[in-house]
Amino acid sequence: MQDITVASFNVKNLIGPDQEYYRFQTYTPEEYAWKADWMADQLLALDADVVGFQEIFDEAPLQAVIDEATRRSDILNDAAQPDQTKKYRKKAIFRRLESGGYHGASLAFAPNVADAGIPGERRPGVAVLSRLGFAGAPEIIQDLPAPLVIPFAPLRGLDGGDAGQFTLKRLSRPILKVRIAMGGQVVTVFNCHLKSKLGEYITPTGAAFAPEADLTTYDPLGRAMGSLRAAVRRMAEAWVLRQAIVTELNAGHPVIAMGDYNDGEHAVSSEIIAGERPFKNYSWMLRHDAEHRADRYTAEENEQITEAVERVRLRSAEKLFVRKSLRDMVYTSAFGGVFESIDQIWLSRHFDPDNAARIGDMTYFSVLNDHLTDGSHPEAPYNKLASDHGQIMAHLRLR
To answer: Which of 252, 259, 276, 303 lies 20 to 30 angstroms, CA to CA, from 95?
Structure first.
C-alpha cells in the first residue's frame, strides 16, 4: 500500500514585488515577503505529495516558495525527528510528524497564452508540484485545435432556421494535464481554473472602458449580460475538461480532476465535469424510440446504461468525506455571508468505496480555511496577501 496526498491551492495572484499584475495592483517588497512567507507556511502545513496551484503569473516566485517550504521542513525534521542514537526513533508518531519537503520534486508550470507580460494586463496560469515526478511530459490545454461550436436547436413550434450558437476558441486559463505514478498505477491528474463569476463586459471600439463598468450609470441588464457571458464561458470550459477526462477514462486511466471550479458541486459547470448521475432504474423510463406507453428499457439495458454512466462519472472527494465522517463543515470561499466550496477534487470510479475493483481509497479530506475572511467585511484586504481561497487535500491509500 502507498499513502498519497493530493491538494489544490489557489494562491491568489502570485507574482514578484513591484510588478503590476492587474491595473494599479502590485505588491511592495514587504507585502510580497509577507505573502511568500504565508504561502510557505501553508505548503508546509499541507505537506502534500501532489499540489495543484492556481493564479500563478510567473514560475520563479512559486519555485522560491517551494524552496522555502523545503528549508523549513528540514529545520522542523532536524528539531523533531530522533537521530540514530535514540531507541524510540522507530515509533509510529515520528513517522506521522515527519515533514516531507520537496527535495527533487518536479514542477510543471502552464503559463497563460493570453499573458503578453504587459503591466496591468497580466493573465495567470496554473502549476502542478509532484514529489512522485511525472510519467511523460505535462500537457497544456488552452488554445483549442478546433473551435468548440455549440449550436442551439430551434424551439418547438418554430419553423427551423438558425437558432444561434456559441463558439469557444480559447480557455480563459490553461488546464494542466500530468500523469503521475501512484501505487503501481499511472493516474492522470488535471489542474484547472475555470472562468470566474466576474462579469464579462465588451469595450466598444475606441472607448476607454465598457459602459457596464461605469457604476455611476448603473446598467442592470448590461451587468446581467456580463454574468451570462461568464457563465456560458465557464460551462463551455467545463465541457472541454470533461472531454479530456472521458478520453483518459476510455483509455483505462484513473483520473483526478482538481482546481478552482469557481462553482459549487451542484452547479451546472461542476456537473458537466463530473458527468451525470445514473437514474435509479432505467427500466421505469420510457424508451427513446417508444411507440406506445409500455415501451420501457429492459432489465439488461438498465444494467448496460447504468454501467456506461458510472464508468465515466467522477466522485467528489469532499462528499466522500462527508459521507464517511457524517459531518459537513467544508468551505473554501467566503463572500457576502455566503460560505461555499468552489475549490474541488474529483476522483474517478477507481477510488469509489462502492467499487470492488478500486485501486485505492480516500481515507481523509483536509481543508485549511481558518485564514478566510468574508470579502464583504472591512478586514478583507488581508486576503490580498494570504488567499481568498481555502486549501483542500484528499488523503488516498493506494492498494
So the answer is: 259
Structural domain 2-275+312-398, CATH architecture: 4-Layer Sandwich (3.60)
Cβ pair 388, 333 in contact under 8 A: yes
Neighbour count for residue 297 (Cβ, 10 Å): 20
Coil/strand/helix, residue 247: helix
160 or 115: which leads in pLDDT: 115
- CA–chain centroid gap for 21, Å, is 22
Report the pLDDT averaged over residues 203-231. 96
Cβ–Cβ < 8 Å for 242, 148: no
DSSP 389: S
Provide φ and ψ at 227, rounded to 5°: -65, -40
- Give every strand in the sheet of 139-151, ordered side by side: 139-151, 165-182, 185-193, 255-260, 343-347, 315-316
pTM for the predicted model, two decimal places:
0.91
Kindly report the number of other CB atoms within 10 A of residue 159's CB atom.
Answer: 5
Sign of the C-alpha dihedral computed for residues 175, 37, 98 and 331 taken in this order: negative
Instruction: Report whether 296 contacts 286 (CB < 8 A).
Output: yes
**CA-wise closest residue to 13 among 375, 389, 371, 339:** 389
CA 18 to CA 32: how far, in whole Å?
A: 9
pLDDT of residue 226: 97
